[in-house]
Specification:
Blueprint: E1 2-7, H1 20-33, E2 37-42, H2 46-59, E3 65-71, E4 74-77, E5 80-83, H3 93-97, E6 101-102, H4 103-111, E7 117-123, E8 152-156, H5 173-181, H6 189-203, E9 211-214, H7 226-229, H8 235-238, H9 250-258, H10 263-271, H11 275-278, H12 283-298, H13 302-309, H14 311-314, H15 320-335, H16 351-355, H17 364-376, E10 391-399, E11 404-411, E12 414-415, E13 418-419, E14 426-427, E15 430-431, E16 433-436, H18 438-449, E17 456-461, E18 471-474, E19 477-478
Parallel strand pairs: 1-2, 1-3, 3-7, 7-8, 10-17
Antiparallel strand pairs: 4-5, 5-6, 8-9, 10-11, 11-12, 13-19, 14-15, 16-18
Length: 490
């Protein structure tokens, strides 16, 4: 899924708008969380808007879903719609038309792409401050109705010929409603727009009615629950807090024992997993067994830890589909909580050990499963775990008065070293540092970048820094991927 999100607010001559930059930034972050590859462009000139549209056209070549969003001034000229840049020439309608981004061009780019689902959302019907200068009549207010090609839905902030509110809070009235309802689980896009319309009408006391043109033939959901995205396992297995224990079933006895957080009950529970018993167990139950085996191992259950560390030996004699269900559950537990939601940070104690199993070709189906699950859930990673992509990292250091200092950590040509608190800890104008040895730093990079050791190549510059007993690194550091880190393109 690919998206181009543009917000223009800093229009000259007192015609600026307060909210479009917030609208674009907030929606870009939301779409990023739903798995879109997002370009966010703010306060663009006409040339910049054209440049971003070309980049979006290229991006659409590899995606089945495309979304274009614009917040800012928009107008209709001779029945066609134009999205205004900061430097649009407003001396005349002709000048404006040739120095703005044509909505028809956006529609055409998306219609000719390989995307099967095309979404255009326009919070661009704000009051036109140039109406009087151009001696326009009320029939040319707002945006004009537009044709939606096959597979396209176009959402307008208000009905044709009307204008929209810029809002009194952080977002425009329409975008605020959109941000609210886009979060609704298992809600089709058509239903979402209906809810947006109702909220906008309520917020404006009926003065503003949002509008859509659609020719979608299939269903599209921004936020589907994992149970609807993953058909292989039941929803009560994916969100195992809903799993109901039946003590009469042996697999449930194992799960019940593992859930106790009591080693004296966890260890014997693992002992019940012999081949004869496992091969009779249902795959949903074994998936939950796998989740709880990993959890118990992280909680220091010796038997569970042995099972995870010696998975191939421990599962000898298991049918292939039974072994897969257990490993699927273990991998799922690394990334998803008991509600079936992505964790804010992975459960990483046995992350590298578990992913080292990818070297066995007969287990690849499990790694395909977790990669597909993470993609479906909108996980944001430098490289999707399970795909087996190699990632190269360079730790840049320099010799300081107190020792060797980590200055930057480069991945893909960008420095990903940042502060958890969005601001480094300074004393007397200098960053405060903590000591860390290279081995510990490498282990933390594995967990925070969410790349197993077998797929992560770490180098140091100068190379001798890798042999230092201790390094100095800024306090409060992280390399976890931030939600907005890769969104802003200009």
């Amino acid at each position: 899924m690919a998206a181009l999100v543009i917000g223009n607010g800093a229009y000259p001559d007192g015609d600026d708008l307060a909210n479009p930059l917030n609208d674009a930034t907030d929606l870009g972050a939301k779409l990023n969380g739903y798995g879109f590859e997002v370009i966010v462009a703010l306060d663009c000139t006409a040339k910049e808007m054209e440049k971003q549209l070309k980049a979006f056209r290229k991006l659409l070549e590899a995606h089945e879903v495309g979304l274009f969003f614009f917040a800012g001034h928009g107008m209709q000229i001779e029945g066609s719609n134009y999205l205004l840049a900061l430097d649009t020439d407003m001396d005349s309608e002709t000048d404006a038309k040739h120095s703005s981004l044509s909505l028809d061009k956006v529609v055409d780019v998306m219609a000719k792409s390989q995307a099967s689902t095309k979404i255009i959302i326009l919070d661009a019907c704000r009051n036109n401050p140039w109406e009087r200068a151009w001696h326009r009549g009320p029939g040319t207010r707002g945006l004009a109705s537009v044709y939606a090609p096959k597979g396209t839905i176009i959402g307008f902030a208000t009905s044709p010929g009307e204008v929209a509110s810029d809002g009194t809070g952080r977002n425009g009235t329409y975008t605020e409603a959109l941000l609210q309802h886009i979060e609704t689980r298992d809600c089709s896009i058509e239903t979402m727009f209906k809810r947006v319309r109702n909220t906008v009408a309520a917020a404006t006391k009926g003065k503003q009615t949002s509008w859509e043109h659609t020719s979608l033939s299939g269903e599209f959901y921004f936020n589907m629950s994992l149970g609807n995205l993953i058909e292989e396992y039941d929803g009560t297995a994916l969100a195992d807090s809903l799993f109901v224990i039946d003590p009469a079933k042996k697999s449930h006895q194992v799960i019940q024992g593992l859930k106790t957080y009591d080693w004296y009950r966890q260890n014997p529970a693992v002992g019940l997993l012999d081949a004869a018993a496992v091969n009779k167990m249902a795959k949903d139950n074994l998936f939950v067994v796998g989740r709880n085996l990993y959890q118990a191992a992280c909680g220091a259950s010796n038997s569970a830890a042995y099972f995870v560390e010696n998975f191939m030996t421990a599962t000898h004699g298991f049918n292939a589909e039974k072994r897969k269900a257990i490993l699927d559950g273990m991998l799922f537990e690394v990334f998803f909580n008991s509600k079936g939601e992505l964790r804010t940070s992975i459960k990483g104690r046995y992350f590298d050990t578990t992913f080292d199993l990818q070297r066995y070709s007969q287990l690849q189906d499990s790694f395909d499963f977790i990669a597909e699950s993470l993609t479906a859930a909108g996980g944001d990673f430098y490289a999707v775990p399970g795909k087996g992509h190699e990632v190269a990292v360079t730790v840049s250091t320099k010799k300081g008065k107190e020792g060797v200092v980590v200055e930057a950590i480069y991945l893909g040509g960008a420095d990903v070293l940042r502060s958890k608190a969005d601001a480094w800890d300074f004393v007397d104008g200098a960053k405060r540092h903590s000591e860390i040895d290279p081995e510990t730093l490498n282990e933390r990079l594995i967990k925070e970048l969410v790349v197993p050791a077998r797929s992560l190549k770490i180098t140091y510059t100068p190379g001798a820094a890798a042999n230092e007993e201790t390094l100095l690194i800024p306090r409060g550091w992280t390399v976890r991927k931030g939600q907005l880190d890769d969104l802003i393109s200009i």
